[in-house]
């Protein structure tokens, strides 16, 4: 890789040092405590590798063998930063202030798109579950999440309340990561819903269409995940322990169920547009939700009853490949 400028090396060094601090706190120190002072060799080696990378950054020359650790540190720092700015972004109403708040993410995005990191896979560092059983790892993991008590949407009381979606996503991301399992999150809405309301009136839709439709979503999600009503005709579907291909297969099944349904003798045939993203990435929880919504919008623009799959959710404008009724793939260039 080329020699880094002083400011570039300093920025990456900060990410590496932060990563090392978190690794020491959340993995190394816990293992020493739980294993009576014994530290696994892979943990010691990772610490040494991070220390070596820090020294290389101080000299502004990073060896190619250390680039996977650079990507890992930048990805983790980017995710933590994105999560940290979510609260202030939710409060601000001035677009210029919002832009200033988001500016903290720009440097990470620029480095992750750098030519010298192109094609470099992030290093896999030791986890608690590499050495402890899942049961004990979950007991001792810092900030262990718990599933919030269930509540339901205020209007129909069929699907789960939207306020649960993000906490549930955080909960399952943590627990699935412990198990090296995937989580799928999809955004859905009814195609041409405004036309449906116009044709039948909102009163009829609320009485004869939405309740059976949401009962179908609830049945589809039962014992496999969660379905939340976000208002109107928008819904979020959370699928723990489901990789991308499993998510696509399950969402295809949902599309087929909806297409075959008889909605209270309204002679109405409806389809749903879906966007799905794999949250096992560096995106914050809110960004995962936003990207799934983006995938749905892109899919709906191509064909009704299709799926927009957000792949490699990095940066740049997504490109939609019109392959409906197969999933519409939304790619993001690193």
Q: If you average the pLDDT, what whole number results?
A: 86
Helical content stands at 40-55%
Count of alpha and pi helical runs: 11
Strand content: 5-15%
Backbone shape: elongated
Give the name of the CATH architecture of the largest domain: 2-Layer Sandwich
CATH superfamily of the largest domain: Reverse transcriptase/Diguanylate cyclase domain
- Going by helix content, strand content and strand pairing, the class is alpha/beta
Low-confidence stretches: 313-325
What is the H/E string? HHHHHHHEHHEEHEHEEE
Largest sheet: 7 strands, mixed
User: How far apart are the first and last residues' alpha carbons, in Å?
Assistant: 17 Å
The total count of strands amounts to: 7
Strand order of the largest sheet: 2-3-1-4-5-7-6
State Rg: 23 Å
Q: Any overview of this molecule?
A:
With 334 residues, the chain is of the alpha/beta class. The chain folds into 2 domains: 6-140, no CATH class; 162-331, Alpha-Beta Plaits (2-Layer Sandwich). The protein is 51% helix and 12% strand. The chain contains 11 helices and 7 strands. It has a 7-stranded mixed sheet with strand order 2-3-1-4-5-7-6, with helices on both faces. Helix 1 packs across helix 3, helix 3 packs antiparallel against helix 5 and helix 8 (193-200) crosses helix 9 (202-221). The radius of gyration is 23 Å and the shape is elongated. The two termini are 17 Å apart. Mean pLDDT is 86; it is low at 313-325.
């Amino acid at each position: 890789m080329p020699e880094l400028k002083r400011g570039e090396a300093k920025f990456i060094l900060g990410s590496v040092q932060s990563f090392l601090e978190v690794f020491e706190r959340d993995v190394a120190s816990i293992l020493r405590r739980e294993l009576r002072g014994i530290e696994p060799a892979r943990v010691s080696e990772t610490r040494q590798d991070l220390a070596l990378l820090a020294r290389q950054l101080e000299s502004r020359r990073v060896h190619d063998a250390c680039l996977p650790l650079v990507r890992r540190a930048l990805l983790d720092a980017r995710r933590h930063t994105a999560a940290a700015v979510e609260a202030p972004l939710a409060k601000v109403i001035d677009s210029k202030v919002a832009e200033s708040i988001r500016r903290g993410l720009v440097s990470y995005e620029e480095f992750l798109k750098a030519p010298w990191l192109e094609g470099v896979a992030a290093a896999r560092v030791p986890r608690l579950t590499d050495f402890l059983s899942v049961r004990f790892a979950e007991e001792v993991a810092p900030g262990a999440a718990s599933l919030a008590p269930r509540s339901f949407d205020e209007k129909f009381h069929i699907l789960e309340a939207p306020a649960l979606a993000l906490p549930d996503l955080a909960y399952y991301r943590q627990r699935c990561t412990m198990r090296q399992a995937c989580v799928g999150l999809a955004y859905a809405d009814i195609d041409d819903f405004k036309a449906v309301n116009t044709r039948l009136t909102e009163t009829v839709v609320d009485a004869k269409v939405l309740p059976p439709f949401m009962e179908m979503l609830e049945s589809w999600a039962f014992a496999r995940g969660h379905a939340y009503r976000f208002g109107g005709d928008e819904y979020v579907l959370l699928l723990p322990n489901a990789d991308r291909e499993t998510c696509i297969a399950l969402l295809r099944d949902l599309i087929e169920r909806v297409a075959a349904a008889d909605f209270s003798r309204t002679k109405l045939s409806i389809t749903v547009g879906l966007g799905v993203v794999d949250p096992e990435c560096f995106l914050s929880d809110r960004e995962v939700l936003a990207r799934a919504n983006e995938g749905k919008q892109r899919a709906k623009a191509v064909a009704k009853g299709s799926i927009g799959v957000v792949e490699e959710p990095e940066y740049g404008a997504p490109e939609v490949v019109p392959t409906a009724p197969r999933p519409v793939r939304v790619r993001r260039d690193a």
